Amino acid sequence: MRRVVVTGIGTVNALAQDVPGTFAAFRQGRTGIGPLGLRDAERLTIRVGAEVRDWDEGRFTPSELSLYDRVTQYAVVAGGEAVAMAGLSGPLGPRAGVILGTAAGGIRTWEDSYRAVFQEGKSRVPPLVVPRLMHNAAASHLSIRHGAAGPVLSVSSACAGANHALGLAMQQIRAGAADVMLAGGAEAMLCFGGVKAWEGLRVLAPDMCRPFSLGRKGMVIGDGAGVLVLEAEEHARARGARVLAELAGFGMCADAGEIVAPDPEGAARAMRAALADAGLRPADVGYVNAHGTGTLLNDRSETLALRAVFGAEAPPVSSTKAMHGHAIGATGALEAIACILALTEGLLPPTLGFLEPDPDCALDVVTGKARPARVEAVLSNAFAFGGLNAVLALRRA
Amino acid sequence: MTERAEIEAAVIEILARQLLLPETEISPEARVEDLGLDSLGKVEAIFALEERFDISVPFNANEPDQPDFDFSSVPSIVAGVERLIAAT
Fold it and tell me: How far is CA A205 from the centre of its chain?
């Protein structure tokens, strides 16, 4: 079976609009969560989020802007950084593809259009609304910009979108359908309607995300994109590319139970499947980037799952969502990038917002600041609404 | 001012709709836990109360002791709604 390696990463998120800035924030333990600046925020009950601030749309041409919802903008900037880091250029050709996760796609375009016709009484919307809001717009524009003419699609599995995208992209390379895949996720749900929808579920924290901590009050939504360049190992070696890590395993499964409540048994099955796919034993894993949303239910359920898989010797765990927010369909890509930091620099990014240990979350939680630790392999968890579990295993290059 | 009896009737009606029960099976003293309302039913019931009385219920599913709104029984919900109506 062909081994799959990571040769480039790129991101836009609330911490920074590139990888060096994001790594710096992970090292420093800085949060991107703050007051929402979006239009009509004063009519929201929840007014915090991890927004991408000071975004410059001037980098795009007017014709690009008419086609690029914010979710596409984030994806193409993150993808451009990843491709450049990988040292790839020119049309990538039919042996290259793109798979991106997104939950809400071009939701801002939906919102702006509805606002125009329903609220402002206009009788028409801009002509390119359909290609702008379609869920595959971000994946397609990455494909167009880099000439990736192989397997290209978007996946939509709520909070597990990017993990599913990365896992499926890895499988394309393993199966011989492609040599290079750009994979990850993009999300831009921090608009009035997006937050309003989340408010109804009563699971958002009014102040801060505090994963695995006593006193946690829920999740905080984030925006952004993360793209990884995945490559067949022999393809990367042949061109002398720098290998950042190996994407070694992927496990996915469904709870087939509740629509929003997590099931520790399903989460544990996905982790075990990822380990088996990577040929890893639990004891080989030196760090888990948890799903860790900061809700009462997730963190308790994920703890049970981790204890079931790893026993009393569970490795150090952190949730970086208290820094970049829960970026829904993009979050797995941001967290895979956090895992790359752990593997390449021997530094486990911290869980911010932590107040005090919760007896229901008896884990070695990395809190406060990044912890030095040489790790050989890591897991990155994602457990989505709909009962969909997707876990990645990465190994040191 | 909305009468307490009217609020109580609405609370029972809303809970009954979520539980798929006849209203007569929900006593004015009933505890929500005993009725078997799940977490999704709870947020739908709260939404229905907000729409019915034009109030905003401060409720976060992540706070088990529900410091801002006691959703544990029909009387506690009625008292909470009364307080929110009085405050508007």
Answer: 20
